[in-house]
Amino acid sequence: MTTLGATAIRAARRFASSLPALFGVLIFTFLLMRVLPGDPAVFFASGPNSGKEEIETIRKQMGLDKPVPQQLFLYLYDVGRGNLGRSLMTGQNVTKDLRERLPASLELTFSALLIALVLAIPLGVLAALKPGSLIDHGVRLFCALGVCVPTFVSGLLLIYIFYYLFGVSPDPTGRVDIFTTLPPAHTGFLLIDFALAGDFDGWWAAFKQLILPACTMALFVIAPLARITRASMLASLGSDFVRTARSVGLSWWRIIVTYALRNAILPVITIAGIVFSTMLGANVLVEKVFSWPGVASYALDALLSSDYAPVQGFVLLMASVFVIVNLVVDVLYGIADPRISIG
Amino acid sequence: MGLMYSKQMLGAAAALAFFTAAVPAKAQTRAETLRYVTGAAVNTLDPNIPGSTREAFAVSLSTYDRLVSFGRKQLNGKWVFDLDTIRGELAESFDVSPDGLKITFKLRKDATFQDGSPVTAEDVKWSLDRAVTAKILGKAQLLTGSLTDASQFKVIDPTTFEVTLPQPDKLALPNLATVYPIIINSKVAKAHATEEDPWAQAWLKENTAGSGAFIIEQFKPGEQVILKRNDAWNRGPDGKQAFFKRLIVQSVPEPATRANLVEKGDADIVIDLQASDAQALEAKGKLQVISTPQYNALTFISMNNQMAPFDKPDVRRAVAYALPYDDMFKAALFGRGAPLFGATWADSKPPSGAFPIPQPVKLDLEKAKAYLKAAGYPDGFSTTFSFNVGQAATAEPMAALLKESLAKIGIKVDIQKLPDAQMSTQITEKKLPFFTEGVVAWLPSTDYFYRNFYTGNQRWNYSSIDNAELTAVAQKARFEADKAKYEADGKVLNAMNFDLMPQIPLWQPSQDAVMASNLTGYTYQFHRQVDYRDLSRK
User: Fold this and answer.
1) Residue of B285, B276, B304, B228 whose CA lies nearest to B29
2) Please, what sign has the CA dihedral across residues B405, B409, B410, B416?
């Protein structure tokens, strides 16, 4: 109970201390967007007959006719009320767009991370058990391949093999086959929503759509996870307590999993946290290749057309996700290594 | 036990019945569904909203009717829109008065909106008032047809509507067939209007109130639009409803994925593939590839005529003779388009008053060097050449060839690739010396091209040319009713354009429509999108 309490207090303190950083991100992105040389009003007024008047109308609509300090003040006021502004690109409120798209990105990233962890940890452990062996080199080669092939290449390759050549996966266009009726949205995660609705054909359809992009992303992040597991396992296996455990004749499984792996897992959690946040923001290529309606491709399109509100909203969202992921990592630390909560 | 057995049998029989019934039903649905994939996205249901994409225009053509629409004609064996034949869409007939100042429309008596209420002259009046009054895109377009004020539109009786013009204007009627002047169900729209938004722009952006051939079923901005057929619609050229029962417009950002989809038959038609993919699919021969030069669009290499060294006509001529046109055409477009170079003009006079016409320029480095010397730059100069990221696929190889060739006459070129929004901002501010851009005219006539792209201090005058004589001739041609005189004016303009060389027309890129082999009816339209109502399946 006290451990739990201590963890909660530490988490709350951590969260409070990250608020100034979030505020800084908010102001920084706001100013950055205005310093960039593109003028959104000119870009969006690009109908064949748009002239000065149309540009002025859009400028007024976006509030760009006011001085920058006033714009910033209005923006902060809006954000305070939970309004992130309106996107010119989709014509929707940014909050609405992000709320619809974030679950898509999260579902993809979670699945990818899960696949990556399930593969990377055993691979790392195997490599660490027999350093220098054929298995170790095999794992190294696999990781190197995964990292050095850019995600859009591996994505297109997977599409070519599984969709184009063999026809086993459905067409790579979004989260679910276009003819499938969507389940009532509870969580926004299609796999969960379909399961809640008891529609298992739908669940299977969504799963089939998800598996290729998730594998593409997983391939890319297996390397750092497997390598860190291996390094940390090597240190752990060479330590005194493992030698002692071996000498008292504990079972193989107990030595490796309970003693060595649990002690080696801390850096893996840290890296997994970082990998998760990075994937969420940086999986734009995967989202583009698979037409995945996620937040990253949304932000990229907005950036290219200098659509301020979505970019600002996206950066704020990513900053918040980072804060939350860090909190979760902290809490997981406490579970993996009780000494941390005491300190 | 026996009961259970029979229950199982029943279940199996039911399942069997279901499958035999469901399989053909589903196959039929697919055949009656048109799935169109695109790299762009639909962002509004009202094409008038500032920032509307071209995909949004295409959807609006299926959800709304206009008073009139363009017919189609064959150009080199391919169907294209025809500016000169205008047929009624919501209008049953129309009549232009002898002095050209009044156009009277008789509305179809059987036309209804999608909610079942009849289309009346009141609705037409409200819709056109909106197009010229509200702060929307239609305003600037209709201006080019002398339609500027609500007082020009008059309701005579519930099915008769009259438009008055301040001067006879040959572009007035064609303007009513463009994307913007949609006819809206005014009762529905008014019910959603507010004090700040009297024209219901906010509501119409996400909802439709039209009489068009398709009804919106699902609209996810930036992802997909699903529409179903309006069975009561009969405004097609043959008086029939649209062929497809269901229409899916879906955004697929990756061009390679779009190519895969259409090749596998999962998508029916796509028009924005990479030129290399279109060529490869055409070579395989499984699909239909209809490649139409976009005869209302062209690509330029523009030079800023107000900025040294491009303020000297001889420098511009030097550039025009130093471009490796053939190589650029092959590298950028794989030869898919209509070239606007390499012509021979008899007696150095333009053979026609149309625009654009092929120019008598070709790669001639000696001539280019002579022009450069005459301009006072015998050793050349340095400059930057810009293009936008969105055009990189064609502009990048073109820029590399241009750089190589201009280096041979001493012009050092730095290539600059700009994000789209930055590029349009810098063009509007007239800050770029040397760049490539394209233009399109919905209503392509010689005077329209010259007035919009060669006059005035505005964005579309890429070369920033300011020539009083050219401006005067173009303005005069605007209201020239005599065809022969108009042709003569066009020749004068073309000759001046070639002599001044403010910018260099390169080519008219083709639109490659790649589609399933059983689709028919595809027509290249003025808005350069697919008009879904044209298509049917054999």
Assistant:
1) B228
2) negative
Under 8 Å between Cβ of A325 and A277: yes
pLDDT tens string A157-185: 999 999 988 888 888 888 887 777 778 87
In which domain, by residue range, is A289 found?
94-304
CATH class of B297-510: alpha beta
Residue intervals of chain B classified under CATH 3.40.190.10 are 31-64+212-287+516-538
Confidence of residue A341 (pLDDT cuts 50, 70, 90): low
**Under an 8 A CB cutoff, do B425 and A288 touch?**
no
Residues of A in contact with B140 (CB under 8 A): 47, 49-51, 53-54
Per-residue pLDDT of A55-114, as tens digits, reads 787 788 778 888 888 888 888 888 888 888 888 777 788 998 898 889 999 999 999 999
Task: Report yes or no: B247 at the A interface, CB cutoff 8 Å.
Answer: no
Instruction: Supply the CATH number for residue A294's domain.
Output: 1.10.3720.10
**What is residue B19's predicted lDDT score, i.e. its pLDDT?**
40
Total of domains in chain A: 1
Residue spans in chain B of domains classed CATH 3.90.76.10: 65-71+82-186
pLDDT band, very low/low/confident/very high, at A46 (cuts 50, 70, 90): low
A27 part of a folded domain:
no
Provide the β-strand partners of residue B303: B434
**ipTM here:** 0.78
Mutation pick from A165, A173, A303 vs chain B, by most beta carbons of B within 10 Å, is A173
Which residues in chain B land under pLDDT 50?
1-28
**Measured between alpha carbons, how far is A92 from B206 in angstroms, rounded to an integer?**
9
Q: Could you tell me the pTM of the whole model?
A: 0.83
| Domain B65-71+82-186, CATH homologous superfamily name and number | Dipeptide-binding Protein; Domain 1 (3.90.76.10)
A 19-78 residues inside an 8 A Cβ radius of B: 36-40, 42-55, 57-58, 61
Question: Is residue A17 situated within a structural domain?
Answer: no
Distance from CA of B77 to the nearest CA of A (A): 28
Give me the CATH topology for the region B31-64+212-287+516-538.
D-Maltodextrin-Binding Protein; domain 2 (3.40.190)
**Structure tokens belonging to residue A224:** 């750092």
CA dist., res. B428 & res. B407, Å (int)? 28
Residue A196 in domain: yes
Q: How many CB atoms lie within 10 A of CB A55?
A: 22
Nearest to B260 among A45, A55, A163 (CB): A163
Give residue B331's pLDDT. 92
CA distance A210 to A8: 34
Return the CA Rg of chain B: 26
Q: Where in chain B is the domain with CATH 3.10.105.10?
A: 297-510
Residue of A33, A34, A50 to mutate, testing the B interface (most B Cβ within 10 Å of its Cβ): A50
The per-residue pLDDT for range B120-166, each reduced to its tens digit, is 999 999 999 999 998 888 888 898 889 999 999 999 999 999 999 99
Taking only Cα atoms into account, the Rg of chain A, rounded to an integer number of angstroms, comes to: 24
